Amino acid sequence: MPDEDELRQRLHDDEPVGNIDLDAVLRRSRARRRPRVAAAALVSSLAVLGIVVPVSISLASPGAGTLSAGSAASSSDSAVAPDTAEGSATGPRLIKRAPADKINLCTGTLASVAPADDGLVLTVPPVDAAAGARDIPVTVTLTNTGAQPVTGSASPFPTLTLSRDGIVLWHSNGAVPSLAREIDLAPGASTSFEATFQPVICGVQDDAQESFRTDLPSAAAGQYQLSAALDFSPTATGAAGRDAAELVTGPTSPVTLH
Questions:
Q1: I want to staple 185 with a disulfide (CB 3.0 to 4.6 A). Which of 67, 170, 189, 256 is the partner?
Q2: Alpha carbon distance 167, 225 (integer Å)
């Protein structure tokens, strides 16, 4: 009996085909197509596996854990920027901090600073002055309250901050000479610095400038607080031989404007 291809050829050549057993032709056709269908199904299955298997391996690789959008965000948030930390697995990490003249900014909250490890403390005396006064003089005292001598260097210009109810109203500003003052204090010893402050109220825009506006409004009569801060570099010690600059502050003192 002629197969399907022979029948097509005879029909194409207009040859007589005689009696055709249609059922037999269809059975042979299906028999030839069955292996091709199976092969196509296998290729399709392998294609699906080719997509799924690599993804499954990457998610379940040893030590990698399960990756999710939340964990990716956490990894990003936990990273430390290069300009805010230094160090390595074999050395200490040093976190950079703001200098003394930047810890208290206009209209911000008065900073709470931990006491210096070596026992250095800055204090200012109570002030009584007229509202509207300018360049009010203040003596700032640096005292070694610790049990060991302290040596090093500091700026001769401590930063003063005028505040009220924990809010910064004014702080020392403007360019200052790059000078260093040698500090050598035995336990209980003190040294003093001369400074001035302005009983005025500054704004956020003033901290964006090198120095404050000259027409800042005066603080009204009332009770205020004054505090001081100073950057101190102790004499280098230890195997690393590096200075460990520290921030020295102290309690606030009352200011009465009348």
A1: 189
A2: 10
Q: Summarize the confidence of residues 99-117 as an average pLDDT.
A: 94
At residue 33, the 3 state secondary structure works out as: helix
pLDDT in tens, 124-142: 999 999 999 999 999 999 9
- Are the beta carbons of 150 and 119 closer than 8 angstroms? yes
What is the rounded radius of gyration, in angstroms, for the C-alpha atoms of the chain? 41
pTM: 0.62
Distance CA 109, CA 254 (A): 17
- pLDDT band of 175, cuts 50, 70, 90: confident
CB 219 within 8 A of CB 93: no
- The pLDDT of residue 80 is above 90: no
Q: Distances from the Cα of 25 to the Cαs of 3, 12, 31, in angstroms?
A: 6, 17, 10
> If we measure between CA atoms, which residue out of 3, 257, 30, 231 comes closest to residue 131?
257
In 100-177, DSSP assigns E strands to: 120-123, 127-129, 136-144, 150-154, 159-164, 167-171
What the block records as the tokens of 50 is 């080719």
CATH number of 100-257: 2.60.40
